[in-house]
Design brief:
This protein is an alpha+beta fold and 313 residues long. Helices cover 19% and strands 36% of the residues. It is built from 7 helices and 19 strands.
Length: 313
């Protein structure tokens, strides 16, 4: 592999198959590209499948923005059964009747979960507790009290409903970062009065990025073997379409590259910027400089560099 591959930077959209850990996908890409600086922006359970965002080279510095994006999932719930892990891998701890549970009743319950809700993180999660992750304690048979966390559910939609051989539902959810879907499935089952567990999970969207844009690992490996994989690499600024662009003057560009803030204008000159906005910064030649924060000082807007990417030599 040519040495300049190590200097490549950008974002890859890949599809993780069920049965692999997120870390396994990262290692797969590292081996294929012979690159060390590869990271992901949000994990998926081994049984889950779907979209992952991988950052290469200097793009790893963008992970803090990409990890904050909303997510869209599709998950199947099996009704009438509760498991210890809230998913298909866990030990069955309770079986209840689903008599009287209908698709219409489920839709009524789903509506009650839209908005801000509280979740208790499952023991099989990466939440820290006294210096250890909860899943490390769970593997030792230790269960501790967890504090509820607030998450946002923007949309819950029933996609499919099956009566046989057991009552099941396929649901789409649009949610904020940090939402535990298997906990959501379990809580919905409790609200129905019959219990439920998450049978499978697919992540279909992260922020503006959709699974249709992503490559399977097999497609990625083939593109690498043909030397064509770079055409699937999103540039640094293409990975941040959620931030509005801001073109700087040459003087402002010089100040930004030195880590200095600049007054960029008035609130009337930039009506779409309210203050405390993250923006994509460009020089007068429209070359990407990095991410800045625009703050309001009275009627003036001041841009402070936040993540700057000086031109590579």
């Amino acid at each position: 592999m040519r040495s300049e591959v190590k200097e490549l930077e950008g974002v890859l959209l890949l599809l993780k198959p069920s049965g692999m850990r997120a870390h396994d996908v990262v290692e797969f890409v590292r081996r294929k590209l012979k690159m060390k600086r590869v990271g992901h922006t949000g994990t998926l359970d081994p049984l889950a499948a779907g979209l992952m965002i991988l950052c290469l080279g200097r793009a790893t510095r963008l992970a803090e923005f990409l990890s904050e994006l909303d997510k869209v999932y599709e998950f199947e719930m099996v009704l009438g059964v509760k498991t210890k892990s809230q998913d298909a891998e866990g030990e069955i701890i309770e079986v209840r009747s689903t008599d009287g549970i209908t698709a219409e009743r489920l839709r009524e319950v789903l509506a009650k979960f839209v908005g801000e809700i509280e979740q208790i993180p499952p023991m099989l999660s990466a939440v820290h507790y006294q210096g250890k992750r909860l899943y490390e304690l769970a593997r030792k048979g230790i269960e501790v009290e967890r504090k509820p966390r607030k998450v946002q559910i923007y949309r819950l939609k029933l996609l499919e409903w099956w009566e046989e051989p057991v009552k099941r539902a396929l649901i789409e959810v649009h949610c904020s970062r940090g939402t535990y879907i298997r906990t959501l499935a379990s809580d919905i089952g409790d609200a129905l009065g019959c219990g439920a567990y998450q049978h499978f999970l697919v992540r279909t969207q992260i922020g503006p990025f959709k699974s249709e844009q992503a490559l399977t690992l097999e497609e990625f490996a083939e593109a690498v073997s043909k030397g064509e994989w770079e055409r699937y690499l999103l540039s640094l600024d293409q990975a941040l379409p959620m931030f509005p662009p801001l073109v700087l003057t040459r003087l402002e560009t010089q100040r930004v590259l030195k880590g200095m803030e600049s007054v960029i204008g008035t609130i009337w000159g930039y009506p779409n910027l309210k203050g405390e906005d993250l923006v994509r910064l460009y020089d007068p030649d429209h070359k990407f400089l990095g991410v800045g924060i625009v703050r309001r000082h009275g009627n003036l807007l001041v841009c402070q560099p936040h993540k700057i990417f000086p031109p590579l030599p």
